[in-house]
Amino acid sequence: MTIQDVEKYANLLIEKVVAYLPSVIGAILAIVIGLWLIKLITNKIRKIMEKREVDIAIRDFSISIINIGLKILLFIVVITKLGFETTSFAAIIGAAGLAVGLALQGSLSNFAGGVLIILLKPFRIGDRIDAQGVSGTVNQISLFYTHVITFNNQRVVIPNGELSNNKVTNYSSESLRKDAVTVAIPYHADIKKARKVLMDLMEKDDRILKDPEPQVFVASLGESSVNLSVRFWADLDSFWGAHFDFMENSKVELEAAGIMHPFPQRDVNLYQNGPSDYLKELQNQ
Q: Where does the record place the Mechanosensitive ion channel MscS domain (predicted)?
């Protein structure tokens, strides 16, 4: 290759750079201005939704969709500035989208689950739920995942597809909650006396509602105990406090009344002459 050839290619390269330089500068400006406008628009929409007190899950979900849509539009503007044909590029995007869609079926299922959660509202941010073996408070509902903070302050991320297709227990959907506590007493204990102690205990606790009326009844006869079932209602915010205090105070009050907690026991009969004495006893019965 001669010096003239090198100069020829260098000049050709310079011409190409000069020819495309305005397009590159335009694309860079489009990216900078576009990202600034997208941020401005999404912040404006967020403030409007906050002012109208739109549900936080719907707000975050909508802003995410708008943000993604505007960035896709910006991408199309940038490639147009660079001189690419949008028709052929759209075909490539379509084919790539199909391939990605097949590869990410689980993610699409999570996205659809997120839409269903936003629309049907089986739970909201701040609700206490039990789902997929996780119990805690809903902290965030995003496009693909729901974030739950457990009661020991751990963040668990659950795919929306699993939440929309499986059982979810929402403890915050109702303003009242019913408790069911089993209290065991010995067989020789006075059931009526034990019932009165437990009813008086619930009567003294202002957190336990008097309507519906608390209940104490015999639920079952165990091998070593009579099992009493205690039922009462409480407001959602004070439920756990009432529950734990009742568990502690019921033991204290029953023991003060002379009703001790039963322990498993077994009667053993010893016969001096072995099985023959036992057979004679059976014959005499």
A: 107-172
CATH architecture of 3-103: Orthogonal Bundle (1.10)
> What digits encode the pLDDT tens for the residues 162-197?
998 899 999 988 889 999 999 999 999 999 999 999
Can you give the pLDDT at residue 138?
A: 93
Tell if the pTM clears 0.70, that is, is over it: no
Ordered by start, the domain boundaries in the chain are 3-103, 122-170, 176-256
User: What span, in angstroms and rounded, lies between the C-alpha atoms of 38 and 198?
Assistant: 62
For residues 142 and 148, what is the distance between their CA atoms, to the nearest angstrom? 12
Which helix (H) or strand (E) is 135 found in, with range? strand 134-141
Architecture of domain 122-170: Roll (2.30)
Q: Which residue has the tokens 């401005």?
A: 40
Q: How confident is the model at residue 78 (pLDDT cuts 50, 70, 90)?
A: confident
